[in-house]
Amino acid sequence: MDYMKLYRLWLEDPYFDETIRQELVSIGERKEIEDRFYRYLEFGTGGLRGLIGAGTNRINRYTVRHATQGLSNYIHSFGPAAAARGVVIAYDSRQCSREFALEAALTLNTNGILAYLWDSLRPTPMLSFAVRELGTIAGIVITASHNPPEYNGYKVYWEDGGQIPPERAAAIQAAIRAIEDITKIHPMPEEEARAKGFLKPVPPEIDRKYYDRLLGLVTTTPEQRAACRILYTPLHGTGNIPVRTVLTEAGYPVTVVKEQEHPDPNFSTVKCPNPEEPEVFQLALRIAAEEQSDVILATDPDADRLGVMVRDRNGNYRLLNGNQVGAILVDFILSTRKAKGTLPPNGAVIKTIATSYMIEPLCREYGVELLNTHTGFKFIGDKIREFEETGTHTFLFGYEESYGYLGATFVRDKDAVMAALLVAEAVAYHKAHGRTLYDALQAIWAKCGCFLEDLHSVTLPGKEGQVQIAAIMEQLRREPPTSFGGIPVAYIDDYQVGVGLEVATGREYPLELGKANVLHFRFADRGFVMVRPSGTEPKLKIYFSVTGKNETDAHRRLEAVKADALRMMNLPVVNRP
């Protein structure tokens, strides 16, 4: 791409507004101009995600129009009935989210496609539910999940309520790339769209139906629920009303962190609104100490990820990672369903390959199949669709290490509102039996092995960062490590070529999952190191999972494996206490 030509177009063409022009005029460095215009934001399985600002490599009203025009053209390829079914749109509390949502709706409208738009912010999982409930052909949510406040994004869902899989994303990306002149895209005026019936509000009963379906998951007694003390923070995002509504209607006493209760596009009380980070719980911990809360729950801005801190027997609060919360919920769901006689003979739990193998013995014990997918909840949602089409399995639970969980099929993406309720249910159940959630985790470790995990994300922005990430992946393929931290590598799975290698014998085997730029170095004891570029951010992600005789031993091994891996990649080593 001729980035200077694009820069001049955006600077001089009257199609672009004065705010955009002023921002572009203020750029003093040619390198910054190149970064903003050397490409269009890539539309992948996670849709678009980028810095808010002027340029083709930024998210703004014009790149939102561009993506939506491509989506519109793709929808029209399915005929007039698809356009008539329409698209439902949700948005979070970020900068420009409402503006971008309306821009998308009116661009759909100018293409003759019906759009349903909520009048206020809603969580991503409610969008997934609404797609299924309204029978729309697709859904759009404007969010950058847990990214810092300077980011926003644009995610697309298909008619089953799931994120689009790679093949569909590629088709939409091709439709976007086929647009030769974005200045020809003119959204319908809002008044006209409403008058013609192209732009409609989401029916209010959708919210109520979603809450009722969630409340149908409750299995504990009213007395057990009333005995719990739950502290919740929405981290300035969309979760506040839905999470508190569901927990309160279920009979759980809930306290909210007031300073983080209301939507705030700057996420002023935290550096980054990511419930994976201990830092976001600082305000909550002060309240929890006073109230002796059993659990602290935190949702990210679009309420699809849930962070959990639990009180141990000494009164200390421990942040559980996504692998641990998932294992606790799997154990709770399988054990209670077995006790009630509702465990199906063809039950399945789904996890991603980046997620710990800790639950493998649990699934075996309960006669449930454990299936793996690529990283990203879209693959779990796609697996549920496959189950419905083939009838081979009954979905029981799906999760990924990045704090995403799903315990029912009326939503097809990770759902922190649902997860908050399920965690509360697990707290109530274990408290009634004299246990904390941390006790429950220790019992799983005793049965399955003490697994500890970590994720190291390295941000490598811009064009140079892409080159560096590619070089690291190439080096690992050219000279694959034979051990990490003294633990031999037993298997090397290279999903880019779709072939795995048994190191000891040299035997190669086909990988069942689709191709992706992922290297998975597996140990004989079910631990691993996995490396992949992020699909939504300029990051290299390195996942670690180890087992040990106890927590101290596992921690020692984890730090050794991590330090060794990062040294091999010439990345800075950061040890955690």
Tell me about this structure:
Its EC number is 5.4.2.2. One of its GO terms (molecular function) is magnesium ion binding. With 577 residues, the protein is an alpha/beta fold. It has 20 helices and 24 strands. The protein folds into four domains: 1-38, no CATH class; 41-181, Alpha-D-Glucose-1,6-Bisphosphate, subunit A, domain 3 (Alpha-D-Glucose-1,6-Bisphosphate, Chain A, domain 3, 3-Layer(aba) Sandwich); 224-448, Alpha-D-Glucose-1,6-Bisphosphate, Chain A, domain 3; 450-568, Alpha-D-phosphohexomutase, C-terminal domain (TATA-Binding Protein), CATH 3.30.310.50. 40% of the residues lie in helices and 20% in strands. A hairpin with a 5-residue loop joins strand 22 (519-522) and strand 23 (528-533). Helix 12 packs parallel to helix 17 (416-432) and helix 14 packs across helix 17 (416-432). The longest helix is centred in the middle third of the chain and has 19 residues, at 322-340.
Q: Ends: how far apart?
A: 46 Å
Structural class: alpha/beta
Classify the beta-strand content into a percent band. Answer: 15-25%
The strands making up the biggest β-sheet line up spatially as: 16-24-23-22-19-20-21
CATH class of the largest domain: Alpha Beta
In total, the number of domains comes to 4
Helix content: 40-55%
CATH topology of the largest domain: Alpha-D-Glucose-1,6-Bisphosphate, Chain A, domain 3
What are the segments in which pLDDT stays under 50 over at least 5 consecutive residues?
A: none
The largest β sheet comes out as: 7 strands, antiparallel
CATH-wise, what's the superfamily of the largest domain? Alpha-D-Glucose-1,6-Bisphosphate, subunit A, domain 3
* DSSP E strands, number: 24
Mean pLDDT: 96
What is the count of helical runs?
A: 20
The value of Rg in angstroms is 24 Å
Described by the principal axes of the CA atoms, the overall outline is globular
The CATH architecture term of the largest domain is 3-Layer(aba) Sandwich
GO molecular function: magnesium ion binding; phosphoglucomutase activity; phosphopentomutase activity
Domain Alpha-D-phosphohexomutase alpha/beta/alpha: 42-180, 209-314, 321-447
Cofactor: Mg(2+)
Enzyme class: isomerase
